[in-house]
Amino acid sequence: MNVQEILDQLKPLILTYGTKLIGAILVLILGIWIIKFLVRSFTRLMDKREIDTSLRPFLKSIVSVLLRVLLIISVLGMLGIEMTSFIAIIGAAGLAIGMALSGTLQNFAGGVMILLFKPFKVGDFIEAQGFSGTVNEIQIFNTILKTPDNKTIIIPNGGLATSAMTNYSTEATRRVDWTIGIGYGDDAAKAESVIRRLLSDDERILSEPEPFVAVSGLADSSVNFTARAWVKAEDYWGVYFDMNRKVYEVFDQEGLNIPFPQMDVHVHNANG
Questions:
Q1: CA 231, 236, 237 angle in degrees (round to 5)?
Q2: How far is the C-alpha of 241 from the C-alpha of 95, rounded, in Å?
C-alpha cells in the first residue's frame, strides 16, 4: 500500500474527526471564557450580598471546578468519546468518598450554612451544644468559642447548624429577672417600694419598658417578689450583680429580712 492509498483511507477520518476536533477546541476556548465570566459575576454577587470573606474562596473554587468538569465532559462528548461509563465511575467514586467523609462533609455544609445565613457572628455570646461563650472564630468545619474564664471550645459546625442555639447578642436590650424573698410577717408593701426605688435609682435601667415588681409566690419560708427590668445588653451582668448587692444591704437597713431555709426539731420525752 503506497502513501496515496493511505492518505485516501485517512481522508474520511480526517474530515470526520478533524471537524469534531476543531469544534471541540472552539467549544473549549469559548467555554473557558464563559467560565471566567461566570466566576467573575459570581464573585461580584458574593460581594453584593456581603458573603463572609472566609467563605468566598471556597465557594468560588467549587463553582469554578464544577463548571470546568462540565466543560471537559461536554468537549469529550463532542469528540465521540463514550461518557456514560466515565460518569458512572466518577459517581461511584464520589459516593465512596462522600460515605467515608460523611462527618467532615456535614461539618463543611454546616459551616457554609452558618456563613451564609449568619445566625451569629464573631463577637456574639451564644449558647449551643451544652456550651456557652463568645464566638472567637468561624471556620469552615468548626466554630471556636471563648468562655468567660478564657477556655477555648471547638464545636463542629454540623451539629451547630442543625440544632437549637441561643444568641444573647442579637438584640440591643435584654431583660434582667430577680427573685427576691422576704420573711413572713415583714411589710410586703414596704419591700415592694424599696425594690422599686432601687430599680429607679440605677441609671442603667431603662424607663421603657417600665420595671415590673410583684409578689410571685408564697414559698415554704419566704414571700417571693419577682422583679424585671430592661437594660442595654452590655449592662446585663453589671446591673444583675449590683442589684443583688443593693438588695442585701438596703433590706437590712430597712428592717426587712431575707429568709433562709429553717427546720424546727421537736424532742419529745418518751418517759413523759
A1: 155
A2: 55
pLDDT value, residue 103: 63
Q: Dihedrals φ, ψ of 184, to 5°?
A: -60, 135
The predicted-structure confidence for 82-100, as pLDDT tens digits, reads as follows: 666 666 666 766 666 565 5
With CA atoms as reference, report the closest residue to 165 among 143, 187, 150. Answer: 143
DSSP 86-118: HHHHHHHHHHHHHHHTHHHHHHHHHHHHHHHH-
The half-sphere exposure of 135 on its side-chain side, counting CA atoms within 13 A, is 26
Q: Which residues contact 138 (CB under 8 A, 6 or more apart)?
A: 52, 54, 111, 114, 115, 121, 122, 144
204: DSSP letter: T
Closest CA to 42 of 58, 60, 30: 60
State pTM to two decimals: 0.61
Tens of pLDDT, residues 111-167: 888 877 888 888 899 999 889 999 988 887 889 999 989 999 999 988 888 889 999
pLDDT grade for 197, boundaries at 50, 70 and 90: very high
Instruction: Answer for the pair 35, 64: CB distance below 8 angstroms, yes or no.
Output: yes
Domains and CATH numbers, the chain: 7-100 (1.10.287.1260), 120-167 (2.30.30.60), 173-253 (3.30.70.100)
What's the Rg (C-alpha) of the chain? 35
